[in-house]
Amino acid sequence: MSETGTQNRNAAESEKTGELREEMIWGQLKTVRDPEIPVNIVDLGLIYSLSIAPADGGKRIELRMTLTAPGCSMSDVIKREIEYKLARLPEVREVRVEIVFDPPWSPAKMSDAAKLAVGLDMDFGALPNAKSAFKILR
């Protein structure tokens, strides 16, 4: 069986037994899309950290994330959708989503698949890693 098939089988077994697994959380996060950009928040690079901690007879999920712009009008919508979807997972008693803007988001944080989905080159936003053979004349 392929590695992906094994992971899917393990996630399905965990859901049946009520055991929370990190891949279940990431799977739910990948279903949350930025309403203004047709890409999920994971591939956009909006998730900065994820942790699972004990909480009153279950688990608490703590998530630090950013938005594509500080003035994003959809921030409450995205945050509520994350809270709703993660709260439905087994053992989850609490979900905390903290929206931060440091470090600021940039297209360089996007996955290659996300860049392609929005029409960017795969190296868009990346810092140059070697000196160019071309000189800039001014």
Describe the structure.
With about 140 residues, this protein is an alpha+beta fold. The chain has a single domain (about 5-110), classed as Fe-S cluster assembly (FSCA) (GMP Synthetase, Chain A, domain 3, 2-Layer Sandwich), CATH 3.30.300.130. The chain has helices at about 5-15, 20-30, 75-85, 110-115; strands spanning about 45-55, 60-65, 90-100. A hairpin with a 2-residue loop joins strand 1 (about 45-55) and strand 2 (about 60-65). The longest helix is centred in the N-terminal third of the chain and has 15 residues, at about 5-15. The radius of gyration is 18 Å and the shape is elongated. The chain starts with a helix and ends in a 21-residue tail after the last helix.
Highlighted features:
single chain, about 140 residues, alpha+beta, GMP Synthetase, Chain A, domain 3, about 20% strand, disordered N terminus
Rounded Rg = 18 Å
Q: What are the segments in which pLDDT stays under 50 over at least 5 consecutive residues?
A: 1-8, 10-16
Helix-residue proportion: 25-40%
Instruction: Summarize the helix and strand pattern as letters.
Output: HHEEHEH
CATH A-level architecture:
2-Layer Sandwich
Give the full name of the CATH homologous superfamily: Fe-S cluster assembly (FSCA)
The CATH topology name reads: GMP Synthetase, Chain A, domain 3
Look at the helices and sheets and give the structural class.
alpha+beta
Distinct helical segment count: 4
Number of domains: 1
Strand tally, please? 3
Q: Give the terminus-to-terminus CA distance.
A: 59 Å
Biggest sheet architecture? 3 strands, mixed
Strand order of the largest sheet: 1-2-3
Instruction: Tell me the name of the CATH class.
Output: Alpha Beta
Strand content: 15-25%
Shape: elongated
Arithmetic mean of pLDDT: 83
